[in-house]
Amino acid sequence: TDLSSAEIIGKVDFEIFPKEIALFYRTGDEQVLESKQRLRVEEQLTATNGNQTWVETVKTPIFNSANEVVGTTGIAREITERKLADIEREKLIKELEAKNTELERFTYTVSHDLKSPLVTITGFLSYLEKSARDGNFDKFNKDVERIHQAVAKMQTLLKDLLELSRIGRIMNDPVETSFGEIVREALALVDGNIKARGVKIEFSDSQHKIFGDKIRLVEVLQNLIENAIKFMGEQPNPKIHIGVVSDSQNPTSTTEKNKITFFVQDNGIGIEPQFMDRIFGLFNKLEPDSPGSGIGLTLVKRIIEVHGGKVWIESELGKGSTFYFTLS
Questions:
Q1: Cβ of 86: how many Cβ atoms within 10 Å?
Q2: Which of 78, 98, 127 is the last residue before a domain boundary?
Q3: Does some domain include residue 83?
Q4: DSSP letters of 124-146?
Q5: 113, 164, 217, 256 - which has most CB atoms within 10 Å?
């Protein structure tokens, strides 16, 4: 604490510390008195100015001549630096374990998805040989086209993997911009898809300032808007609403403390609950025959995380989806 010895001597815990902390200390004393054994504890002290300090305290029973416990004594030493290092180490270990798990999933997914077009190519090469021997050049040309499609798919997968690997490793210079400017640039990039599907865009121009990799942040909005258009289904009046969660809304499930929450909302087909955890996974496609490699939302998640934020989804089947994200 930041109290002087004169302010402490002669007082009990409840006269010095808040009730919950005093109870913790008193419990330790009672444990020593009851067990007649030495007790080692790590305690966090909060000074009157709010500063917190970690101390290691060894509490020892005091015996009288009749070998009866008549009190306790304690010796404390500051371990703040060591404790903070331990906390940081545990945090890093958990992050490393999470990254190792992610790497295992990544390796499996990549090997599986890259193997698929190779299997197709291998199979149709054998068909080519047979078609050539039989002189069936109509079949030969169709098989060649299937091989071209498989090669194109592999090229797309490799290109997207390279793009994913660059995020966080190769960054553009961070700049200050507004959320409104990022949204307008993203809308310009997907204008053709918006008009082709007849989607109505609702956006209340936001001047919230953002500091980060502008090119990547535009990519986030572009991917989220394209994803919303792709999964409109048969909606006769497709609509996408882009905005910022206001303080008056402030639902605990859709905001993060001290961070502005942005959203992209659609009235499309929505997502079943069992698929919620999968949509940000690498190459995960809820509709296998839909265009693209299935890496778009993975890129969104990675870009947001590199910017110190978080992305999540709330959805109901048949009623659309809302993607929320924060930035540091």
A1: 13
A2: 78
A3: no
A4: HHHHHHHHHHHT-HHHHHHHHHH
A5: 217
